[in-house]
Design goal:
Blueprint lengths: L2 E2 L5 E2 L3 H12 L4 E5 L3 E5 L5 E7 L17 E6 L5 H19 L2 E8 L15 E7 L7 H11 L5 E7 L14 H6 L2 E8 L13 H26 L15 E2 H15 L3 H4 L5 H10 L17 H8 L10 H22 L5 H9 L5 H12 L10 E2 L1 H16 L9 E4 L6 E4 L2 E5 L4 E2 H23 L5 H4 L4 H15 L5 H18 L4 H11 L4 H12 L9 H14 L17 H9 L18 H10 L8
Parallel strand pairs: 1-11, 2-3, 5-6, 5-7, 7-10, 8-9, 13-15
Antiparallel strand pairs: 3-4, 4-6, 8-10, 12-16, 14-15
Helix pairs in contact: 1-2, 3-5, 5-10, 6-10, 9-10, 10-11, 12-17, 13-14, 14-16, 16-20, 17-19, 18-19
Length: 630
């Protein structure tokens, strides 16, 4: 695992430090040093570029340095004139070492604009302004063109201009390299002035959300620029810009990740809101003529929500430099906060509103699809023999053993539970089976691929990664997870029309819940209009009304649609097996793979080895509407 220590002794920029840096780079090693006056050098491996920020000596400039701290090669130094010679010596030697190795080197120096001066920026602007400074007057290098276009594509409401002039340094500072050195080293120096819209001009305070968003997008623009420069000016041939991103991750990342994952492991909000008296509640509901809403009982809480939140917000993200990983961690903290509040508000009117923050209302297109499925002619019911909970457990253990033979760390267990409703569910990678479970033999393989082949496999693949959130679940992972799990049923040849009807009925029930219908009203619609059996209609309604109204169950059909659209768009299904992720995280996971922060997944779902899988996948990529699956 690539790690960088967050705390180091302060180094003075002198000949000894310069010699150490050059020796490390010549040995194909990285180097990380905390420098005097809040400076830092971070090069996690030799690369033909360096980002530089020099803090102005005459004013505060909070936030600007953070814009380059996510890159694989950067220098943050003081712009104090007394330290100038040392900084310039260090940059010159780094540039020479990299140019000798790669044939050329790119240096991008970043600084912030002053308000109310001739930069054209003023403190009332909400639009980010970027000025690219280059001295290539006759023929702009393609690198400058790429930099300009990448900044224009940030989608933050920005203006980008290119200024051709001799001086490429921040106002009042000496150039990092003289003209002779630049020519000899085949060095391209670019200056970039950024309007600090991420900062309050009255107080100097940082708008953290704006800075965080800008950092992620700006990092992408830098990597696109590095990629173009490397491809054109050096013999190196990376295949993707993200491969030029940082591989070494500071310990602060793994500390925060471990603390978030440990806290997530302390509770299971689904178990906390799943009734323990489902059978008794159904019998009482039936005795009441299906008119009086049932009374559900839940597990006693073994956690203190207030203590969990105190621990949650004591986790520090202050020293995390990587904007991509920082985004994931901050998003996960928000989700955990909402899940804890959901448990705290169990059986209160507030529960439904907390649920909607985690799982949004049913959109019209999804509702229309659900109605189309339910209005289609019913198919014959599955009449194959039903397996008991013990028989299902035996088959599940065989399935787990299949994975354990190739990956011994796959330590999932199977447990039959009296306090779990009829059916299967995975919790922390383990399979829980309700004691009253009865599953037809025609459906059992598909359900095992859903629960073990998807939920348990992605859990254990996530555990094999240095980023622990990949097993506890990145924020909003349920939708893609459940969509993938249902798709696994199709690949295993066990997704039938009656199963689709249940997923559609869950969508209908969630919509009715959010519009104010009662449990009894939803149950009777499912029973009398859509012709489900009493127990099936009850189970669907119970899942949706549990805790006070849980809108999660719309994610199954919504997620299935999402997976189909992803595959039709050329998406790679193997990426989805790396861990538990949301749809918006797929590109981030790919980035972390290309950066070699993540490892290859040790487990491949068994259903991917079935002879018919390749043909079924191809069919989906070429056509693949929901109804075509069955």
């Amino acid at each position: 695992m690539n790690r960088a220590k967050g705390k180091k002794k302060i180094e003075i920029i002198d000949q000894a430090l310069v010699k150490e840096v050059v020796l490390s780079l010549n040995s194909a090693q990285g180097i990380r040093k905390d420098l005097e006056q809040k400076g830092r050098l971070n090069i996690d491996r030799p690369l033909p570029f360096l980002c530089v920020y020099r803090g102005p000596a005459d004013r505060e400039d909070s936030g600007t340095a953070h814009l380059i701290m996510g890159e694989a090669s950067y220098l943050i130094a003081s712009g104090n004139a007394e330290l100038d010679d040392g900084v310039r010596l260090l940059v010159k030697n780094i540039a020479k070492t990299l140019a000798d190795k790669f044939g050329a080197v790119l240096i991008i120096e970043v600084w912030s604009a002053l308000a109310e001066d001739d930069s054209g920026f003023n403190s009332t602007d909400s639009k980010a302004k970027f000025k690219i400074f280059t001295d290539k007057a006759k023929e702009l290098p393609s690198t400058i063109d790429t930099f300009e276009k990448s900044l224009e594509a940030l989608e933050i409401g920005q203006d980008v201009t290119v200024v051709i002039q001799k001086d490429l340094s921040p106002p009042g500072m000496t150039a990092l390299l003289d003209d002779k050195t630049i020519r000899e080293l085949s060095c391209l120096v670019v200056g970039l002035e950024i309007s600090p819209v991420f900062r309050d001009f009255q107080t100097g305070g940082i708008y953290l959300s704006i800075l965080s968003d800008l950092r992620r997008k700006f990092s992408n623009a830098l990597q696109q620029t590095f990629f173009e420069f490397v491809q054109v000016q050096t013999p190196e041939r990376p295949t993707r810009p993200q491969m030029l991103g940082r591989r070494v991750v500071v310990d602060a990342v793994w500390t925060a990740d471990a603390e978030l994952s440990a806290l997530s492991d302390n509770f299971n909000y689904l178990m906390a809101v799943t009734p323990v008296n489902a059978d008794e509640a159904f019998e009482q509901f039936r005795d009441d003529g299906y008119e009086r809403d049932p009374l559900f009982h839940y597990r006693l809480l073994t956690i203190d929500p207030e203590d969990l939140k105190r621990r949650l917000y004591s986790i520090s993200f202050d020293e995390i430099e990587d904007p991509t990983i920082a985004y994931l961690l901050r998003d996960k903290r928000i989700e955990l906060d909402r899940q804890i509040t959901l448990i705290e508000d169990r059986n209160t009117p507030r529960f439904l509103y907390e649920s909607l923050q985690l799982f949004p209302p049913v959109e019209d297109d999804l509702m229309s699809l659900a109605e189309t499925i339910l209005s289609s002619p019913k198919k014959a019911l599955d009449t194959s023999a039903k397996l008991s909970a013990d028989e299902v457990a035996d088959l599940a253990r065989i399935e787990i053993e299949f994975y354990r033979t190739t990956y011994p760390a796959m330590d999932a267990t199977v447990e039959i539970r009296k306090d779990t409703p009829s059916g299967l569910m995975v919790s922390h990678g383990n399979l829980l089976i309700g004691k009253s479970t009865k599953i037809t033999s025609a459906r059992i393989n598909a359900l095992l691929q859903h629960e073990i082949g998807t939920h348990s496999v992605t859990y254990h693949n996530g555990r094999a990664q240095p980023l622990k959130l990949l097993y506890s679940g990145l924020p909003g992972y349920e939708q893609l997870q459940e969509g993938l799990a249902v798709f696994a049923e199709y690949l295993a040849g066990g997704l039938n029309f009656n199963r689709l009807r249940i997923l559609a009925a869950r969508v209908i029930a969630v919509r009715r819940l959010t519009l104010g219908s009662t449990f009894a009203e939803v149950f009777n619609e499912l029973l009398n209009v859509h012709k489900f059996t009493e127990r099936t209609a009850f189970n669907i309604a119970m899942r949706v009304f549990r805790g006070g109204g849980l809108t999660k169950d719309a994610v199954y059909l919504r997620g299935l649609v999402e997976v189909l659209n992803y595959l039709r768009g050329g998406g790679d299904i193997e990426t989805l097996f790396v861990g538990k992720m949301g749809p918006e995280h797929v590109s981030i996971i790919r980035e972390l793979q290309w950066r070699e922060v993540l490892r290859p997944a040790p487990l491949t779902p068994r259903y991917m080895t079935f002879p018919e899988t390749a043909e079924r996948l191809q069919r989906v990529r070429e056509n693949g509407s929901i109804l075509d699956l069955i």
